[in-house]
UniProtKB/TrEMBL annotation:
UniProt xrefs under PROSITE patterns: ABM
UniProt keyword list: Monooxygenase, Oxidoreductase
Pfam family, one: ABM
Organism: Paenibacillus polymyxa (Bacillus polymyxa)
Signal peptide (UniProt feature, chain positions): none
InterPro entries documented for this protein: ABM_dom, Dimeric_a/b-barrel
Lineage: Bacteria, Bacillati, Bacillota, Bacilli, Bacillales
GO function terms (MF aspect): monooxygenase activity
Name of this protein: Antibiotic biosynthesis monooxygenase
Domain ABM: 4-92
Length: 100
């Protein structure tokens, strides 16, 4: 099993966290029909008013890369990009656990 997992922390411009989270939730809706995306969860932090965290699990890294070529996903990325002042992606290879 070589599933691709990614955790990402996005730091929004002050006051823009909810707008960014809304765009990411729209992206999650776009991924509902993508059978290679097993998990896409948008989280916010009670301790950081500007942080949005995304938890992703994919069939493999290629499936994740292919999703970024989807026109609707690209449009979401373009809408969200001006709201972001920092990004910390952590790319991982999921090897097992509950839910896999």
């Amino acid at each position: 099993m070589n599933h691709f997992a990614m955790y990402g922390k996005l730091t929004a411009r002050p006051g823009q966290r909810d707008a960014l989270a809304d765009i990411l939730l729209e992206a999650a809706d776009l991924l509902k029909s993508n059978n290679d995306c097993y998990l896409y969860i948008v989280n916010v932090s009670d301790d950081d008013p500007n942080a949005v965290y995304v938890t992703e699990l994919w069939k493999d890294a290629d499936a994740h890369a292919a999703s970024l070529k989807n026109e609707e996903v690209l449009a979401s990325i373009q809408r969200g990009r001006p709201l972001i002042i920092g990004a910390e992606p952590i790319k991982l290879r999921a090897i097992g656990g509950k839910g896999l």
